[in-house]
Structures are given as structure tokens and as C-alpha cells.
Amino acid sequence: MEMRAREDIEIGEDITPPIPPLSYALHHSFLHSHCYSCFSPLPLPLPLNSNYNNTKNHHHYYYCSPACTTTRVVSTEELHILQSHPHHPFSSDLRAALRFLQSHPDDRIAVYPQNFSWINHSCSPNASYRFFLSPPPPCCSNSTKLRILPQHTVLTKDDEVCQDNGPKIVVRSIKRIKQGEQVTVTYTNLLQPKKMRQSELWSRYRFICRCERCSASPPTNVDHTLQEISSANLDASSLSSDQNVYRDYAIRTLTDYIDDAITQYLSFGDPELCCEKLEILLTQGLLYEQLEGREVKSQPTIKLHPLHYLCLNAYTTLASAYKVRASDLLGLYSELDEHLLEALDLSRTSAAYSLLLAGATHHLFRFESSLIATVANFWISAGDSLLTLSRSPVGSEFAKWDLPIANPPLLKCICSKCSLMDNFKAILFHSEAQNADFEDISSEFLDCVTIITQKVWSFLIHGCRYLRAFKDPIDFSWLGTSKYSSLRDVQPHLCSTAEGPGYTLQERMHIFQLGVHCLLYGGYLASICYGRHSHLTSQVQNILDCEECLINDSHETD
């Protein structure tokens, strides 16, 4: 079972019309907040009228309109599941399966038809997909032809007819696909090394991936980087004879340590302790004797490659945890004092980790283009963090302390050296991304952000020893050179509010300019993956509209 391209397909093009599900059911956690038929959010609290409340089923589910009450008729068996086990974790699965069996008694169980369900997995996919809960926009209409077909199978006209019920799915190319080439998507997180991907795929889907990336020998550059560790000051004679066992044990220990730190943040609400633990791990590493339970004279340490997948997880968590800590301080204190100065330090550290994460994953993206969706998310997050820092209320209060800061004229900070803004406007208001210019746009973007970053990076990383080891969070060409050794010698030194460089007007303008670039490029990549009407491109538009960067009256109807 596989799907192949009927024709040559360029990057960033829809290759299916909106595909409806064979069966679908609202997740049990949304039974009281979304329409049971179309999944649309309901106004809360619910008004007391028949459009929403369904007295016959004792309020186990709700509809958004009289029309939806007729499009989704609940069977006696389904109502029994709702009444007996409304919050069971498998309630929605059972209801979806029940609906499918009632409507397709002779077919094998699936959620979507073969137009989508026969698209296989790859760890280096050439396509992605997106869902539409509401009616798809005009650019994704049913008139879009199906550009893929099963191997050795000819689809009939009826196979291409798209119905109007249920959340629809659209498949889109993220690479150039040749006629006859198999179309693939990913079933797992691509920023994991091969062993973790294989384990997850087997656990969930019971198959061993043999895609080009997994079959590569030696491992691809990306997979090698995602799992590389270093043993500083450790002689080969000190290692156990089984290198693989040693490496696996080291990774398990490091993973447990990072998971424990993240749990402190997510489960126990202690972002400060989480930051402390992760910073110590990144800067100090783990002592070899902690792994082997024995003493060694040289006190070697085990450290992760700065682009190791555990480091990427740590950067993601630190960016979020520092942001929460800054937000908490701003919520507690209103007058400028040491607490608000600390909030500024935390905000800039959060922005620095977001920028490092975007730059690191972009470096991997250069070797594995299927990471485009992940990279789009990280650039958008970095841009949002930088804009949040640029408009921080702390900065506007610095003048009271006779520090050289004022609110910058943000509209005058738009870069005139690249076409990102014009390109993004064209995507939003007129057409899809001009993907033939992808390489030029990416090169233009990297040139601009590299120049701007050099002007603000020292300010963003002040007080954080681990980040100070990165001379440039965008250019990672120094990896594998003698400069990489500086990261191995970093000593633990937590972020502090020690007196540092002033937050000048010029720095604030550069930070804003950098944030806009990151948002625009992330939005551009998102439009390739998901189209111009995706939630990510809308998120970028909304953020920039708040900054008055885009002119809303230039919208045109499709």
C-alpha cells in the first residue's frame, strides 16, 4: 500500500483536495466545549436555548446550530457509551470505530480513505498535511485534483469526490516530487536520533523503518549530530570495553536528569529549579564516576554535543521556563526595582535560548530539508520572544533611572535590505509562496539576521555562561573545529542579575528588527508546509498586525 505522484510536483503545492474522514468522533475532553457534529467551539457559558443544550441526552454532548443536529444522528449504542463512560480515555476511539462499523460494515477499519491512509511514513518525508475543522478556504476547494494514486491502481472519478462532512485533511509537498515517486509523510518526531524513532514507530505502528535516512551507513550528518556526546579528559583505557553499552547508559542517565528537571517545571510548577538543573547540566555535564560508580583520577565529564537532541529539548524548556519566570515577576511588581530588572534579564535569556534553538535546528535543516515544519515553528517562537522583549514595559521605565532608553519608532525599524516583508504580504493577500526563489529568500534572510544578531547577541546572553560560549547562534560552521572545544570547557555559572550592559534604544530597535525577520521567515516556511491559510501563517500575521507592520486594508478576497 503506497501512493505515488501522478505528475511532477513543486515544493509547497497541495497534492490532494480536502479529504473527508470515513468516520470521526469528538474527543471526550471537548464534549462540553465544542459542537458534537462540526467540532466548532461553542460560546461559553452556553446560552439556555435549544441550539446548544440537548435535554434528551442529559447534556452529554452539544450542537452549535439546528443544522448540526440533523447532520450527526447519535445511535443508541453511541449514546450508551456517552452515558456510561463519557470521560473514558478511549471513549472517542470507541465512538469513532462504532460509527465506522455502522456505516462501512464490509470495509476494513480506518479513519481516512486510501487517498491519505495509504501514504507511508519516512524519516525524510517529501510531504506534510494539515486539517480543516471549518470549511476549507477557496484555495483548497474540492476542484483541486488528486495528484497522487496507489501503485498498480487506477482511481475512478468516484474516488476523487470529496464529501462535505467531518474534519478534512489536505496533503502538501515540502520537497520537489517527481512523477512516479512515492509520496511520504512522517509518523514521528524527526528531531530524534534513529534509535528513538525506530523504537517509537515499532511501539505505535509495529513496523521497522527502512527509509533512506534510517538505512544510511554511516548515519546521516543529522542523526550523528543528534546523538553525539563527548567525554572530556577521558582516556580510552578508562572506558568499558563495550562502547555502545557505555554510550547507552550515559544517554539514559542524562535523559533521566533532563526529564526530572522538566517535571519540576511542568508538573510541580517550579521553573526556577528547572532552569538551575538544566543550566548545570549544559555547562558542567555529568561526572564519569556518576555513570560507572567508580573513582577515576582525572575526574572526566560526559557532555552533550550542542545540537544533541537532549540539548534541543533543554533549549526549548529553558526558553519557556525563563519566559514564565519573567512574566510572573512582571505580574507581581509594577514599579521599577531590582525585581523588574531581574525580569528583563530573564526575558532576554528566554529570547536568547529561543534564537539559539531556531539557529541550531536551521543548521540541521540545511542537511535534512524535511525538518522545515519544525524549523518554521522555532523561527516563529524566536520572533515572538524577541518582539516581546523589545516592547517590554521594563525598557520604557529605564529612563527613570537615567538610563539611555525610550520607546523606539518600531515602524521605522523594518529592514530595507531584504524582500521578506513584501514576500510575506504577497503570500497573504495574493498568491502562494514563490517557491522557485526559496534558496534566494533563505540566503537573504540568513545574511540579514546574521548581521543583526551580531549587534545584540552580547546583550541577550549577558550573565549566562553557557550561552556566552556560542559566539554566533545562527552560524554553526565552527562545529567540528577547534572552536568547539570551548564549549567543553564551560564552567557552571547560572544566569544572574549582575550589573551589565545598558538596554539602549539602538539595541531595542535591533532586537525588534531581528524579531520581525524571524517571524517573517518562519511564516514563509509555514506557508510552504501548510499553505497561506494555516494557523501558523495566521499567527505571524496577527503578531505583526499588532505591531502595525502589515496594512490590513490591503486584504483581497480570494
Automatic annotation (TrEMBL):
Domain of life according to the entry: Eukaryota
InterPro entries: SET_dom (IPR001214), SET_dom_sf (IPR046341)
SUPFAM superfamilies reported in the protein's UniProt record: SET domain
Stretches assigned to the SET domain: 1-188
Protein name from the UniProt record: Protein set domain group 41
UniProt organism field: Quercus suber (Cork oak)
